[in-house]
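Supplementary Note 3. Input sequence used for the single-chain structure prediction.
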Amino acid sequence: MKRYTILLILSIFTVSLTALFIAGCSDTPTESNLTGGLAMNITISSSSDLIQQVSQYELEASGAFGTLTTALQVQEGMLVGEMEVPAGDVHFTARAYDGQGVLLYEGETDVTVVPDKVTPVNISLAPVVSMIKLSPRYLTVEEYGTFAVTVRIFNIPHLNQVSFRLHYNWDFVAPDSVVRNPDLGNEVILYDTMLYSTSGWAMSFINTSDFDTLVNSSGDVTLATAYFQATPALAAQVRADTTAITISGLTMYDFDGEELIPELVYYDSSVVIIQYDTIPYVPPHEAIVPLATGNFWTYVNYDSIGEVTSTRTLEITGSDTIMYQNHEHEVYFWNWLDVEGQPSSTYWLVMNTDSGMVMAGYILNGEIDTTNTGLIFKYPANVGDTWDFGDRYFTWNMECVDTAQVIETPAGSFPCYVYKSTIQGQKSYHLFDNIFHLSGFQNLQGASANQDEFYLYCSPGIGYIGNGPTPDGSNRAGGLLLYKYSVE
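The predicted structure, written as discrete structure tokens, is reproduced below.
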């Protein structure tokens, strides 16, 4: 009987795991006159890489000749093994085990080995254990870039409702949105909540159908795709080369509402490799705050100990022409969106002038009020410049204290003009809060304080970066900092 030597070389760090089988044409193995073979491609079902727990790999060949098995060893990032397989019909089975010998993945296929010809062999490995998995296992993203992680469940039959949390390091990763798998149909409802204090993202999937479970007959389902943005670090200007998205807090219920507690559920996370940009910062605009309809800035709020509590978005929602100081001026709508992302009916009218950004009034219940007017962000300005801003009853004292302070935010590092603001009285405080969103600072200082000082950060060409209790932005307690933006 002619037998064929098979040399396996499999990469474990690429999208597909490729094995080259070389078959000889003599009864004994040779090294130089091998003319036939098998080209093998082994992939992991719904994943770009083997899961983290895999530590043992095995390939089995069976047929009329019996059963042959070889262990695959990791050598310099490759899986390598060798076996002799005769020509004819061969059934191949590939397996992956964890460190305790538990079978995690398995796949099989039938091929006909033909002498003097390369025969393709494709094996797709699928999980054989209960598993909730994030895919891809590894991904690379540029600084500020967005990336997606898909959530899948394997081998959990009768599942009809599932809840879990995705965890991440807020200093390096910012959550953006989650999209439910459209193939699930309208009967499946997704609830999600971003937990800012614990850097978690809670998700629940509930199937309301009276006929089908959430998973298919094999207990498999693709739930959703979660989108994130890679951001530079806040603390001490430290940048992480890699960070992880992990899973915790899994709870599951069947069709009858009974809790499912499988003997063991494997969790698999995603590792994000961040490539940082070293291109120097160049402001795209000359104005201190670029004003154009559609420009927006989203911020994170910090509590009194510097923990993230929520987000808030400022958007330029439109423009109009008004009379200001006996002249027509185009003004833009400075509008803080509500918690549902909808524009407020109360918004401020702002414009850029040769002196900087000016407040020309505000809209309240559809009526224009021009009692709160004046220069807010003086630009250009020199350190030590002072001016007043306010209305008929209250005046806020403004001072430029820096023109090149680098402020670290979740959206990046920005050279900023820093404006010190001194306000007096509770009503005065609330008016300023409506413009610059000082809620976190209010919680820290107290709205009844007779006099409060805080700092506003503005980066020319980018806009309002946030606020805080210190001029260098090092103390985030009670502050507000930018974490994503879009300007024209």
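The longest strand covers residues 308-324. Residues 131-275 form a domain with the Immunoglobulin-like fold (CATH 2.60.40.680).
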